[in-house]
Specification:
The chain has 531 residues and is α/β, with parallel strands linked by helices. It contains 17 helices and 20 strands.
Length: 531
């Protein structure tokens, strides 16, 4: 039987990233994917004739430019187009918009609060200081603070030096920022409720936190660490949908000699004498490998793919306690034309960005309260986009595709499990709310896919529907991700690794966990440590 150098479990974007780097290093790499298609959450699917949906992840920014250059992803079809702003609509027909043009953006804020317009540059500078501090760590293996190994000591020294370079005021600011709520952070700069609400959304997307929860300011930062065309914090659309990212990674992998098998669900990792020997598929087939890399989350990897007896009891307990709190849903809609929005000019460039309808911090908190009480939010926060305004390849001429990301949606309902009827009722809640702002929306709907945490878990493998494979809270970041002592992509079985978003630096279509894991695996295999 042939023995591969490395088997990667899961053809999500992190698994494909790791596999591409490993194949480029000359290793024999096989990726095993349980679904009939690749991409995990970063997929493009035609679920209605002529319409391409980004039916899970829906917008790009976090994908590291270093990875795009290393793997030459544009050569394999990847093209990211930045979008031109966004807006938050109000019930009285007004709105506040964001624009890429700095002067337009300041004038728009000034329309609601001249004082807030003057504060905006200070706010942006504060966010950028935090971005500059954390960004160099994204493509580094977290140092072990308990280790005396030279590499760990050097890593801790680099972090300490970067922290010292912030200066006394910056050091105090950083300590406060990483533990504070988004509401408290915004209160330092803005007075207008709508302005604050407009900047709040990125602090709660994908997480079981509200804007008044400590740690939500960091979640906002996590969403601002990416870039498009060199613009830090910008977001854009992958031409052809988010599956274009996965297809380009697969192209780089296959060009380097790697292989992908779909419809190949892994049942368990085979361990013999404390050493990985390969994997067993659900149909009983066994495939041998010198190393196995899991793109699944920490909990699934430890508790489902491996035998408890093969791992320390403390690690099994840590996996059980790993915080994965699903809070998100998704609607994908085929539209017969472009909807209108009350009070927003049809030629407003911000319509091509992200659209919202939550007007105050208090509305965010009430939506969060519903989630805590085991029901979907009665007036949810939505991150609504119409990608076809920027990428006409996604729909037939004259038609449009609408993507709606929704907070908050609990993985378990207080009145019992999710059913198809409850899923449809959740979808109606979202559409009914949006119809208050877009009276013609319902008449334009040709097809609608509604996804709750149940579908995200069953179809995509996101436990509880958590898009980050684990909460991005301080106790689960850096050398604590996924658990203290296990942040360097290795599990305590020779040849067993992790590369998913449960590892540093966390979730989003970033690729950094996959790239970092590949670097560690290559070093180990070349040194013969885990071969």
């Amino acid at each position: 039987m042939k023995t591969h150098d490395v088997i990667v479990i899961g053809a999500g974007h992190n698994g494909l990233t790791a596999a591409a780097y490993l194949a480029r290093a000359g290793l024999d790499v096989l990726v095993l994917e349980r679904n009939p298609y690749i991409g995990g959450a970063a997929v493009s699917r035609e679920l209605y004739p002529g319409f391409t949906y980004s039916n899970c992840s829906y917008v790009s920014s976090l994908m590291r430019p270093e990875i795009m250059r290393d793997l030459d992803l544009p050569r394999y079809g990847l093209q990211i187009t930045p979008f031109r702003g966004g807006l938050t609509m109000t019930r009285d027909g007004d709105y506040i918009a964001s624009y890429r043009d700095r002067d337009m953006h300041r004038r728009e804020i000034a329309r609601h609060s001249p004082r807030d317009a003057e504060s905006y540059d200070r706010y942006s500078a504060a966010v950028m200081r935090q971005c500059r501090f954390i960004r160099p760590m994204l493509l580094e293996t977290p140092p072990d603070p308990t280790s005396l190994l030279p590499r760990d000591l050097r890593g801790l020294w680099r972090i300490g030096r970067a922290f010292r370079d912030l200066g006394p005021a910056g050091m105090y600011e950083t300590i406060r920022f990483w533990t504070m709520s988004m509401a408290d952070f915004l209160d330092q700069y803005f007075e207008n409720d709508l302005v604050k609400a407009h900047f709040t959304g990125s602090s709660i997307i994908g997480t079981g936190l509200g804007p008044r929860s400590p740690g939500s300011a960091y979640v906002m930062l996590h969403h601002h660490m990416g870039e498009v065309d060199g613009t830090i914090g910008a977001w854009g659309y992958a031409r052809g949908g988010m599956g274009a990212i996965s297809r380009s990674l697969a192209g780089a992998l296959e060009a380097a000699g790697g292989a992908i098998r779909t419809d190949a669900p892994v049942a368990r990792v085979i361990v013999r004498k404390r050493r990985v020997a390969g994997v067993a598929l659900e149909d009983g087939e066994e495939i041998s490998a010198r190393a196995v890399v899991s793109g699944m989350d920490f909990r699934r990897t430890v508790l489902q793919a491996m035998e408890p007896g093969d791992l320390p009891a403390g690690l099994v307990k840590a996996a059980r306690n790993f915080k994965i709190r699903g809070s998100s849903g998704k609607l994908n809609i085929a539209l017969d034309g472009m909807p209108t929005f009350r009070g927003v000019p049809a030629d407003c460039p911000a319509l091509a960005g992200d659209l919202h309808v939550t007007e105050t911090i208090e509305e965010f908190e009430r939506a969060y309260d519903d989630w805590k009480n085991g029901r979907w939010s009665r007036r949810p926060y939505v991150d609504l986009m119409i990608p076809s305004l920027t990428d006409p390849t996604m729909t037939p001429p004259g038609k449009h595709y609408m993507s709606i990301f929704v907070q908050y949606v609990p993985p378990e309902l207080a009145d019992g499990p999710w059913t198809s009827e409850k899923r449809d009722a959740f979808g109606r809640t979202v559409i009914d709310m949006l119809s208050e702002y877009s009276p013609d929306l319902k008449d334009l709907i040709l097809h609608m896919e509604v996804r709750t945490p149940r579908e995200l878990e069953e179809e995509v493998g996101l436990t509880e529907g958590n898009i980050f494979q684990g909460e991005l809270t301080l106790d689960q970041l850096m050398f604590n991700r996924p658990a203290p002592g296990y942040a360097q992509y290795r599990l305590p079985v020779r040849g067993m690794y992790m590369c998913g978003s449960s590892t540093h630096p966390g979730g989003g279509v970033m690729g950094a966990p996959g790239a970092n894991a590949a670097r560690e695996i290559i070093a180990d295999l070349r040194a013969g440590k885990r071969a």
